[in-house]
């Protein structure tokens, strides 16, 4: 097995483990519970899960998606999140190989996945994802000159990271403030505002603007038909911001370059 293939396999295994922990964070952080203790337990019967029943993806398949104790079904969400996280880590390793940038991309994708699922389930974005992610993004940017060269289009300095975080937070705060004045009620959740600070820390201020645009377009395409059909549903905007940020990471530099060449000539 050549070294790059070994890195991808290792990334997939590590992604499964991270995805298993992400499942715990998605359930416990909104409930203000510790992700350290108690050990993982069945959400139906409450029995603690033995280590051999807690192997990511494998245990779910071996147990045929049922708890060993109560025999009730284990939700599909758990293996799907583990598998999705593994795919994020493999894709990062596939793109960047054995570089530190692999971890930055993988962690950013994992944070976006955790935010999207939590917001869809609970209509809340825990500070551990948003504020914690902001700190991680700034630390990666600060370490960049000593860890890897500025050759990747995503690489930004710590100054750009701080500016991006401030832009993301400040811009969405202004939108929320103006919206609350215009409509007489909260137009934007505080979690969305802090989430944009995290995105800005990873992508810089141009990424903030592109993420907001893409997120708004995606949200409009999904919820405008529901609104026209008379179905007034609360919008978990974090899902669309996460999607916009993911697209921005993958194709952001190309999209920004296309826009500046074609629209700003």
Structural account:
The chain is mainly α and 265 residues long. The chain has eight helices and no strands. Helix 5 runs antiparallel to helix 6. The model has no long low-confidence stretch (mean pLDDT 87).
Secondary-structure map with pairings?
Elements: H1 3-28, H2 58-62, H3 77-96, H4 100-122, H5 127-147, H6 158-183, H7 190-228, H8 237-262
Helix pairs in contact: 1-3, 1-4, 3-4, 4-5, 4-8, 5-6, 5-7, 6-7, 7-8
- What is the helix content? over 70%
The helix-and-strand class reads: mainly alpha
- Assembly status: single chain
Shape: globular
Largest sheet: none
How large, in whole angstroms, is the Cα Rg? 20 Å
| H/E element sequence | HHHHHHHH
**Which stretches of 5+ consecutive residues score pLDDT under 50?**
none
Beta-strand content: under 5%
TL;DR of this structure?
With 265 residues, the protein is mostly helical. It has eight helices and no strands. The protein is globular and about 60 Å long.
Descriptive terms for the model:
265 residues, mainly alpha, 8 helices, 70% helix, 0% strand, globular
């Amino acid at each position: 097995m050549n070294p790059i293939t070994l890195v991808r396999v290792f990334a997939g295994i590590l992604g499964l483990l991270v995805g298993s922990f992400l499942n715990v964070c998605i359930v416990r952080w909104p409930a203000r519970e510790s992700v350290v203790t108690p050990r993982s337990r069945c959400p139906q019967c409450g029995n603690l899960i033995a280590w051999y029943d807690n192997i990511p993806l494998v245990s779910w398949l071996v147990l045929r998606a049922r708890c060993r104790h109560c025999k009730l079904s284990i939700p599909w969400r758990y293996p799907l999140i583990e598998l999705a996280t593994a795919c994020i880590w493999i894709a990062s390793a596939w793109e960047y190989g054995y570089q530190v940038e692999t971890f930055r991309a993988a962690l950013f994708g994992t944070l976006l996945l955790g935010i999207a699922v939590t917001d869809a389930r609970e209509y809340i974005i825990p500070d551990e994802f948003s504020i914690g992610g902001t700190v991680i993004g700034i630390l990666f940017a600060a370490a960049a000159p000593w860890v890897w060269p500025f050759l990747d289009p995503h690489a930004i300095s710590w100054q750009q990271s701080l500016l991006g975080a401030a832009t993301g937070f400040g811009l969405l705060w202004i939108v929320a403030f103006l919206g609350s004045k215009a409509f007489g009620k909260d137009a934007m959740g505080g979690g969305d505002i802090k989430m944009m600070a995290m995105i800005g820390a990873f992508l810089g201020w141009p990424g903030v603007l592109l993420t907001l645009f893409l997120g708004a377009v995606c949200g409009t395409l999904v919820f405008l038909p529901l609104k026209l059909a008379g179905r007034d549903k609360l919008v978990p905007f974090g899902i669309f911001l996460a999607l916009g940020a993911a697209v921005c990471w993958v194709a952001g530099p190309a999209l920004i370059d296309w826009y500046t060449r074609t629209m700003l000539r």
